[in-house]
Amino acid sequence: ATPTALMVGTGRSAKMGILIKNGEVLEAANHVKTVVFDKTGTITEGHPQVTDIVGDEATVLRVAANLEVSSEHPLAAAILDKAKAEKVDVTAAENFQAIEGKGVQATVDGQQAFIGNDKLIADYKLDATLSDRMAQLQSEAKTVVLVGIADQIIGLIAIQDAPKASSAGAMAALKARGLRTVMLTGDNQRVAEAIAAEVGIDTVIADVLPGDKADHVKQLQAEGPVAFVGDGINDAPALTTADVGIAMGSGTDIAIESGGIVLVKNDLMDVVRALELSKKTFNRIK
Ligand code: ADP
Ligand code: MG
């Protein structure tokens, strides 16, 4: 590949909002066999909304909101939005502690409280009614978090994050080019599968702890070069491990720094366009 041709390729793409760091990245994109996607903020809009509260709504929402004040997680924003809309009294809980990939713990009303998934509260037993309701909400593609205080689960909050308009089309286009698509997420298997079915993703790897995303990328690399598409702090290691790291422009600074390609418009069709551009550039110049 001649440097001039590379500059033509990357210059044109930059105008479309596809920033490619260098020629090696563009060349690596030509060999990709598998495209792996983070879920929240990558396949989905990343603006989750509370849809259902199970339990005594006012109490569940107040405890949840107090816990989430100090959290930077997108789920926290959804809960705080809902609390604001319902005019809930929100005070930051003391002794706040975020537990990566699981949830949050803190002191509310002088008692130990928590919000998060079933990995956070593996020690607590869910009664059958709650666990059935949880499964039902998850199969509707809703992320469900459990809210507890003083060793007692007091309710559930279901949160929905719609897929981006571009997601289904991008998956179809990648498949038409013979590429395998994979979703890699910290969210629950049932939720992940419901969203994968909506947008047409081949393989779902769910319940992945943030520190394990890069390992999954390595395993997928056994079958050929991998592109990883993500936006979060926890996606940075996977972005650098992948043969091609593709970061959302809306993503965290660390994700953007870790990506070899940045999609300014957050449009997943731009993943397809980037791969196409690579193919055109490297099949033209020999
Ligand atoms: P993703 O891969 O979808 O970005 P994360 O690894 O950030 O997911 O989080 C995985 C799961 O951990 C969430 O789906 C949620 O169940 C739980 N979780 C993490 N942080 C929080 C929080 N602040 N509040 C409630 N639940 C949380
Ligand atoms: Mg994300």
Automatic annotation (TrEMBL):
Its annotated compartments are: Cell membrane; Endomembrane system
Q: Coiled coil: which residue ranges?
A: none
User: What domain of life does the UniProt record list for this protein's source?
Assistant: Bacteria
Family membership noted in the UniProt record: Belongs to the cation transport ATPase (P-type) (TC 3.A.3) family. Type IB subfamily.
The name under which this protein is listed is P-type Cu(+) transporter
Give the shown range, full length included. 293 to 578 of 645
